[in-house]
Amino acid sequence: MRVPYLKNFRWKDIPVKEYKTEGTHFRDITRQILFEDPNLTCQLRYFEIEPGGYSSLERHQHIHSVMILRGKGHALVGTRVVPVDTFDLVHVPPNAWHQFQATEDVPLGFLCLVNRDRDRPMLPTERNLQELRQHPEVAEFIKV
Ligand code: MN
So what's the pLDDT on residue 20? Predict the structure, then answer.
């Protein structure tokens, strides 16, 4: 079965959902589930962060395999802040803190492959934040 591409990173009959994770702090993100099937143990989603927006700062046991499809920005992975650009691949290892932020001028869109069955994201405690802020570039970057 073919699902035609429309335009502007939209696909036919794939709903554009608000990105919501209870209690987390994020801004201006949409989510589309591109592949999901009982016979697949993973899901492929497309997320889009509006200019100046960001995903929640979180960590969890499951990993993310990300390909940037649109725009550019920066990502925190573990204790490092890296620039991300179109077609870059980003690996988020188990339990690594992560947050994606779009630049101010263009949306940041990316594919994210995850396990279908996965643990719930954990948000940073005050103590976690203190530890993260020991790293100056991380302190300057994170939005919580
Ligand atoms: Mn995550």
Answer: 67
Q: Taking the complete model, does pTM exceed 0.90, yes or no?
A: yes
11-44 pLDDT per residue, tens? 999 999 987 655 566 778 999 999 999 999 999 9
Task: Based on the residue annotation, tell me whether 112 is a catalytic residue of this protein.
Answer: yes
In angstroms, what is the span from residue 120 Cα to ligand 1's centroid? 9
How remote is the CA of residue 60 from the centroid of ligand 1, in Å?
Answer: 7
- b/e 11-21 (16+ beta carbons within 10 angstroms → b): eeeeeeeebee
- Residue 11 DSSP class: B
68, 84, 102, 112: which is the annotated catalytic residue? 112
